[in-house]
Amino acid sequence: MRDKFFYIDYDFEDNERHEKFEIFFQKLKEVKEEYYNAETEISYNDIDWTIYLDENARKWFTKIELTPNSEQRKIYNALWNLTKPEIRHKHPIFNTADNWDFNSVIEVIFQGDYELIKLEKLKDKGTLFFDPGGFPFGGTEALVQLIESFGNKVTYDHWHEGPHIRPEIGWDFEIAKKLVEEGKGVEISKSNRALQIIEKKWWEFWK
Length: 207
Hints:
The protein is an alpha+beta fold. It has helices at 15-37, 55-61, 71-82, 85-88, 102-111, 141-148, 173-181, and strands at residues 6-11, 114-122, 125-132, 153-157, 184-185, 200-201.
């Protein structure tokens, strides 16, 4: 299996939760196969996927630090707008500890160019096998979110040839608030490879 397919290894502690995860995975696999093999497109959105989540998985998908209309969200958006576009996606201050939205996970899995193959488990170790149809295939982020929502811990990502690469979480509300109040954005230091905050006033972006 490991010589033929891509895979994600993970540890798990709760057998009951893992059984629920297996049922969910099997349903995703079946519907994803139907979705791509159907002569007329079927809608995976017609299924209530939330019924496959246990209570802890539901809570996991609602872990949102920047809730809509909150002060933190407003400051985040303001700092985003004050910062150059090429920096927004690189600087860790824009990375929060939020988990993915559940509907986004489902959508990305179905839009990903890969086939879900199977789950295997041995004692407290599990492996999810998948088969990309081409490259790029959509990445493994959604699959990792799915695996870890059931309390599992991803230990190896074949696509990344090692541990799953995770973004550095650098969101700091107090720093962001101070910059926004002063009308300043974020800039990457040219004298240091590390990404640092350099204060820049909003009008300097147009010079």
